[in-house]
Specification:
165 residues, mainly alpha
């Protein structure tokens, strides 16, 4: 089982993956409005990663053997997340997209998956201040989904291609 510290590490990796994905995609799109929005999304992901890095976590002391198992599990999951797996924020999905609508749909999917994970994490936190702040981050992620949905449905976006990805 993963500790709150492990889940915080995972959240940091998710946010960092998102930041890099959005930065790459912002450089790849031809539409300046979409590029600006994706760069803003990257900044938001970075801000969230910084918050998770400061999240106070408390857990019981582990035996040496338990700590080694925890470390191995944490390293394995972190490697999976960094490798661009399909689990939350596949870094190549945005830049492999063929048009802007696909970029926006993939970004929306990432944000929705992140919300599900954070709602799970919310149930494991005990610190009321951390719970309140995570609820704020979830609300921000929901706003990101709404912005992405609005852009995705904008008539001027239909059929817009990307530059070299």
């Amino acid at each position: 089982m993963f500790t709150v510290a492990d889940l915080s590490d995972i959240a940091i990796q998710i946010e960092n993956n998102g930041k890099e994905s959005y930065r790459q995609a912002s450089r790849a799109v031809t539409d300046p409005k979409v590029a600006k929005m994706l760069a803003w999304m990257a900044d938001e992901e970075e801000r969230h990663a910084n918050w998770f890095a400061r999240l106070p976590v408390t857990s019981r002391a582990l035996s040496t053997e338990e700590q080694e198992i925890e470390d191995m599990g944490r390293a394995l999951l972190r490697d999976i997340l960094k490798s661009g797996s399909e689990f939350l924020h596949n870094q190549t999905a945005l830049t492999a997209s063929v048009d802007i609508k696909e970029v926006l749909a993939n970004a929306r999917k990432f944000e929705e998956e992140t919300i599900v994970f954070y709602e799970f994490l919310l149930g494991l936190l005990e610190d009321q201040e951390a719970i309140a702040r995570l609820k704020e981050i979830i609300a921000e992620e929901r706003r990101h989904v709404a912005i992405l949905e609005e852009l995705h449905n904008a008539p001027e976006i239909a059929g817009r291609a990307l530059t070299n990805c």
